[in-house]
Amino acid sequence: TNCGGKLYFSPKNKGNVCENCSSVFPIEYDYKFNKKPFEENVVVEKDEFADALQNVKCSSCGANLMFNKFQMQTVCPYCGNTTMVKGRKKKLLYIDSIVPFSYSKNEAINHFKSTLRKKFYANKKAFKNMTDEDVAGVYVNTFVFDFLASSQYYGTLSYTRTVRDKDGNSRTKTFFRDVSGLIDKRFNNISVEANSNIEQKELYSIMPFDYSGAVNFKDDFMNGYILEYQDRKLDDCFKQAEIIARKQIEKEILNRYNCDRIERLDLNTTYLEKRYNYCLLPVYIINKTDKKNKHYKVVINGQTGKIGSLPKDKLRVFLTAFFVALGIVGIALLIM
Question: How far apart are CA 133 and CA 294, in angstroms?
């Protein structure tokens, strides 16, 4: 910048803004989200972008992170620890796409507080004195897969129905059905977290992301945000995609035979036409520690604003259960 101020990416301006003079620097980009074959698993040997990043490691939770020269955050976004040690320079996998943040940090905080007020069972006290220092914007490493799953199966399914005996009395009865066959199912945009800092269930709690909003990667979108280091290999992440696919295939088999449960199922699946996109997804992470030193973490989709699981107010949950149980007992006594 002309004044020497730091830049940060502004979702509102779709470009970088100087924190000193508020000058706006638009980013030229193309909407692009193409998948490529597994054979094109390229590690960038000479990458000016990677060389310009500061590699750090959290001394508390072990998170591996990368900061650029315009990064504002100085604490670990995963545990809130302020002690960061210098890490080793790492080679990056070629980044295909990035989904830019659509919410600024302040907008994300206001949206979170508004949502929190509406959730009766949420632990509001845990986030009572939340500040912008408790919130970090992180680009999460993700492999997004397309593939065709061709499966051969055989096993036993079951379903429960209500039947009447000869006296007209109703009862439930379980029926069993032996099944076998072939099933082909195409999967698109199966997203798997490529870093161990965020669990897969946390990522799925804020899905979906709109990949039509993905653009070709440029480090300009990184200004003011943190980048995770990709520490899970492509093949390992695809194994997680296989687990996700199997659950959906099992559900489709149950629906095919109008059954409720799987008693036994041998499923032999071949995965064809495998393609992937290595994409960075925008996530806000809220870290808060209460007076009793208990730690809370909430994730927010930085594109759609969807909020992940909120910690529960145990007292409210207990009182609700108590009064429901009390009401049931009261009704039973009245009937007696």
Answer: 17
Q: Which amino acid is at 96?
A: D
Q: What's the burial of 87, exposed, middle or buried (CB within 10 Å: 0-12/13-18/19+)?
A: middle
User: How many angstroms separate the Cα of 94 from the Cα of each of 42, 178, 194, 197?
Assistant: 6, 47, 13, 20
Average model confidence (pLDDT) across the chain: 86
pLDDT per residue over 128-170, tens digit each? Answer: 888 888 898 999 999 999 999 999 999 999 999 988 877 778 8
Tabulate helix, strand, coil % of the chain (nearest 5).
25, 40, 35
CB-CB contact of 142 with 279 (8 Å): yes
Q: Is 35 in a helix, a strand, or coil?
A: coil
Q: What is the DSSP annotation of 151-218?
A: EEEEEEEEEEEEEE-TTS-EEEEEEEEEEEEEEEEEEEEEEEE-STTS-HHHHHHTPPP-GGG-EE--
Q: Which residue has the tokens 């990035």?
A: 98
Q: What is the pLDDT of residues 54-110, one digit of tens each?
A: 778 888 888 888 777 656 556 788 887 776 777 666 666 778 899 999 999 999 999
Percentage above 90 pLDDT, the chain: 42
Scanning the structure block, which residue is given the tokens 């007020």? Answer: 117
Closest CA to 178 of 243, 270, 248, 266: 266
Residue with tokens 């798997």: 192
The model's pTM: 0.86
Residue 21: CB atoms within 10 Å: 12
Number of C-beta neighbours around residue 150 at 10 A: 16
